[in-house]
Structures
1.
Amino acid sequence: ADMAAGKAKATSVCAACHGQNGVAQIPTYPNLAGQNEQYLVMALKAYKNKQRTGGQAAIMQGQAAALSDEDIANVAAYFSSLPAGGK
Amino acid sequence: ADMAAGKAKATSVCAACHGQNGVAQIPTYPNLAGQNEQYLVMALKAYKNKQRTGGQAAIMQGQAAALSDEDIANVAAYFSSLPAGGK
């Protein structure tokens, strides 16, 4: 994965809801910092494929639709690399 | 939420995959320690309602089906209370 590209995408797109440090500012949104990379890839692909519905999934379906598989790999690697809890 | 009941359920049911400390031992599974409580409730209900599919969702559909709404509230509160990253 391209960590620099992941950081660029994460900070420009994902951070609005999931936090610059991967800690969400909104309690219904998940923290991503330190999350398992493979899980993040799987979750993003499930949103992109509209396999995840319910809750706030519609928002993530739209966001993930704009990500290529390469983008997904990159942002997953980036958020996984951040310290859990934002510390 | 009943934290003691949440801990009992979490350690007996959820921990096999998500870790006693909320840090998953399996890279395709998410860490839950320190995750936002409201997000965990929403995610568990989405699995229970079979709104989350794809990836490993079938496993969680089955697990969540066995949880009452009270169980969900309790385990969400418990995992959210654990330190992110398991530290």
2.
Amino acid sequence: MAGALLRSALRLKPRLRPAGAERRRYSQRSEGLERAVAAFRSVSGDEGVSLGEAVREQHGRDESVHRCRPPDVVVFPRCVEEVSALAKICHEHQLPIIPFGTGTGLEGGVGALKGGVCFSLRNMDQVLDLHQEDFDVTVEPGVTRKALNSYLRDTGLWFPVDPGADASLCGMASTSASGTNAVRYGTMRENVLNLEVVLADGTIIHTAGRGRRPRKTSAGYNLTNLFVGSEGTLGILTKATLRLYGIPESMVSAVCSFPSVQAAVDSTVQVLQAGVPIARIEFLDDVMIGACNSFNSLSYPVTPTLFLEFHGSSKSLEEQVSITEEITRDNGGSDFAWAEDEETRAKLWKARHDAWYASLALRPGCKAYSTDVCVPLSRLPQIIVETKEDLIRNNLTGPIAGHVGDGNFHCIMVLDPNDPDEVQRVHEFTERLARRALAMDGTCTGEHGVGLGKRALLREELGPMAMEVMQGLKATLDPKNLMNPGKVL
Amino acid sequence: MAGALLRSALRLKPRLRPAGAERRRYSQRSEGLERAVAAFRSVSGDEGVSLGEAVREQHGRDESVHRCRPPDVVVFPRCVEEVSALAKICHEHQLPIIPFGTGTGLEGGVGALKGGVCFSLRNMDQVLDLHQEDFDVTVEPGVTRKALNSYLRDTGLWFPVDPGADASLCGMASTSASGTNAVRYGTMRENVLNLEVVLADGTIIHTAGRGRRPRKTSAGYNLTNLFVGSEGTLGILTKATLRLYGIPESMVSAVCSFPSVQAAVDSTVQVLQAGVPIARIEFLDDVMIGACNSFNSLSYPVTPTLFLEFHGSSKSLEEQVSITEEITRDNGGSDFAWAEDEETRAKLWKARHDAWYASLALRPGCKAYSTDVCVPLSRLPQIIVETKEDLIRNNLTGPIAGHVGDGNFHCIMVLDPNDPDEVQRVHEFTERLARRALAMDGTCTGEHGVGLGKRALLREELGPMAMEVMQGLKATLDPKNLMNPGKVL
């Protein structure tokens, strides 16, 4: 449950050693672990295996408020064969396997709930096969989004999926990440062509066949999209083949203020209906705009606001901007300002990308937790209005920023971890918000994943039968429940 | 194997009754079948159950050359509860279940290889929930592509995926269909938001939770895309929630002739690289253009040709066309002609859509089989040139048409079913073509599916480990192997 974990999240001590009746089992496991560590060292060398407390703690948490759950050991494989050999050892000794990219997740996905072995993939950081004419590239799991785009700098191509953080691309595949420009370029689901995966028993598979990269296929079950979004619970992603896009000739950004949430969302729907191929359309509520103004010394009107971005040729941009400006004006939007130059655009998007820190700055010393519901577009005004009323009624700080073109928005909950009453109120609020989204045909998570905190909500969302199917798939691929146990299901 | 089935396909007799040692087993099954039919009638009434030979034969074949394999009985359920009740009866009596949409498939997917019960879904033909502002709609499995677009006529919305045939939308989901405008709007994989599925034991699940329709989600495993492309082997699709798009303000079509395959494909890559949001970009080789000229009394130059379509505002279309014209000219393209008026556009696309019949008209009395490989864009010139040489060397008729923006093309093989030597040469040719695609990082099927004919090729394409995972998934969801047995795996 989001809240139960939120509560536990705020205790920051590492996992305690078991006591009483569990001691003997622990001691058996401890011996198994020792033998496994020796075997890991024979595969990866001393430098590829770490038992150090600092290293373990660093790998026991992500950027969420979920508390640190360090693994027993961290391994640093350098190639898929090594990942496979290490996984076989874990399989033999029944040790949990937790894949680790950059630790920038937001749902506690890397916590070692049952101890075990963290597979840090940071040493596998090569861009392997770039096919410019085919608009595809294959990367190792340690390659981050920014590293890939920096590699692509002189090719005229880019990988657009942008969750904000400089996450590893295989980590992004794991959580089915998306972000600000999914409305134009899709999410990881639409942009992964093939995956190399090491299963719990060390078997290496290629979801679309080794080295294959057709842009479309009807060849058998869609294994690629079974692993995208599986949050490390079905296998370790060791290679991803991704779709690339031509860098647009020009980009224009714009900002526009609205009298109401409804007016901002109506504009969004109409822009999409008009076929404007908008690249980003981000909503910020009055509280978030206020926070951004303070944090970045800006002076946007403190009212519901859209930040927009257009990609295309200069000529098509003119038209896109002019249609959008007309639509926003018809909906009572004002102060429509657009910018073509890099500097003004960068300033505008910095304000949006700093939303997390701007929110935290509202209450220094506090921590933040981001909700992640997604609903059909037409339900956005109602859910945002109700959610804002809920925040006020419960005296909570939760500025709102959202990928409104997809119906996905975040309340960045700023809370004092030492105030149990507030922690409880945030817990109850996030559950109410998720249920509000479910009642509007939506989902409790648009892009962050289920991780630790949303397992009970997932069950409500999908119903017992679909959950049973998912459990069946998990049991088929990982019968010993070694892959990232305690997550998703 | 494509060829083995191709050979068997041309025997057109219905399935023979078993003889000898199998007779007793057959007689036991026959009794089970009789009891099942009585139970079907109690669920669906007499009019909902057919044992008539004509009806069974009509449901035992699709539009491919695979020979008719009629089911033992055809049922016509009217709602999901009925589908579930009928499936439970099949499950109890261990009878195969074969879902049937419109029978427009091209890989023999509806043949009842082991007899059993065909579930014709034609009576479930309602458009259920249209949400205009949310760009989504939910349809029953009997709703066809054209029926949906006709329903949407006055809404300003449309469903663009267009495989040519007026297939049912759930049938299209089953084979992961796409077609001419996938380059702009994606395939069924990208356009199905949720599915209602009846599993082999009659369990009803909703892949994204009942009634849910967020545009994106990270909530658990992607069950939706596990069933998309599963060709009826994992469950019966009884409802699909689909993404819709705004009808573009304007459409322009164009046609352009090239001195070589390479020049046509180079133009395609450059158009995509330039970020032109092209809606259709179809390649026809010289033989196909010749066939189209004869069939439709046209006079296009008999040389590699691109048919193109642009969607957008009038202003953006001007730019798209002008960029494309420049690119084609730089690649030696000539006779670039574009048309905005409905009539000229319709004439142009009629020529493309008649490709199948134009090919058949090359050799009256013959039958046709379409190959369906898909390779990375840059490999297209080589594979097309080698394939054309192969056709000539083996004295075969196989005009080529392709969705070149996706790297997917079809050889429409026209053959005399009574010439065993030619049948054998076509068999060997299609296998060589598929292996040529596999050697170029491609797939044996871009959009038609595996069905009966490509099972051995699928194994070559994916490798034994990925196949084992697929078999594991199948065994989990359908442990008795009742769902469309003998297909895909």
